[in-house]
């Protein structure tokens, strides 16, 4: 029973990284922008957050620095694709490669660094309750805040004027522009906010999930988060559930190894990516359903008339 409690806890922990990044990418895509640079953003943010805590000892400064680094990189990407007309897919791939290279180079001196002792959490004094305690009440605050963020995004997108405007910009930017909305600024704000969430995911990875800095430590999670937005049909609550599903698949390999299952370790490592491919293959069998849920102007540039 204890093993299953730890598996559930690990699932929530791993799912938080994916959920934060995927929710950020969902905000981007609701505004009509595809950002393939999540992997690079998360790597740079992981390094910046880790380095900040090494030098200051403050986790919250580390998370803020990671989110700030993500927002800065995303804003640069937004300026390229929104104002300068760069191709969104090419610019996103360039950002991913740039982030991977920059973090590897700048992070050489931090590979051997160690963080201060990590805080331990026991919410409401329930951490020792059998099964539920270790499974649900010993997590970092960001695990719970991520779930609340997904619910807040549901409310924002479908219950507020700001959400309606954001969705209008992603569906029909020319119409939104004709109504007087500053489409390019709204898209830039969405891209920057999404980048901040990707940065927060990267910082969580190096400060709470691992915690350490290693070259390439994001290990494809940015790409899985990108796939999650399609898997969830651009709905925040489904993103959260999908993130926990993929987080569970990721942790399942370690659980099976702990139970003595004699599968090749390479095959177990492949499980999350095989699951991603399988899900996308199943979804792509119904392109009409994808088009019905996908923002109509996703990936399309906007040039204001006049």
Q: Mind explaining what this structure looks like?
A:
The protein has 306 residues and is an all-alpha fold. It has one domain: ABC transporter involved in vitamin B12 uptake, BtuC (Orthogonal Bundle), CATH 1.10.3470. The protein contains 13 helices and no strands. The chain has helices at 2-30, 38-56, 59-83, 88-106, 132-136, 141-159, 161-171, 173-178, 183-209, 221-231, 236-258, 265-283, 287-293. 42% of the residues are buried. The model has no long low-confidence stretch (mean pLDDT 90).
Total number of beta strands: 0
Oligomeric organization of the protein chains: single chain
Write the H/E string, N to C: HHHHHHHHHHHHH
| Count of DSSP H/I helices | 13
Arithmetic mean of pLDDT:
90
Percent helix: over 70%
Specify the CATH class.
Answer: Mainly Alpha
Low-confidence stretches: none
Which CATH-level-2 architecture?
Orthogonal Bundle
- Output the structural class: mainly alpha
Strand percentage lies at under 5%
How many domains comprise the coordinates?
Answer: 1
* Envelope shape: globular
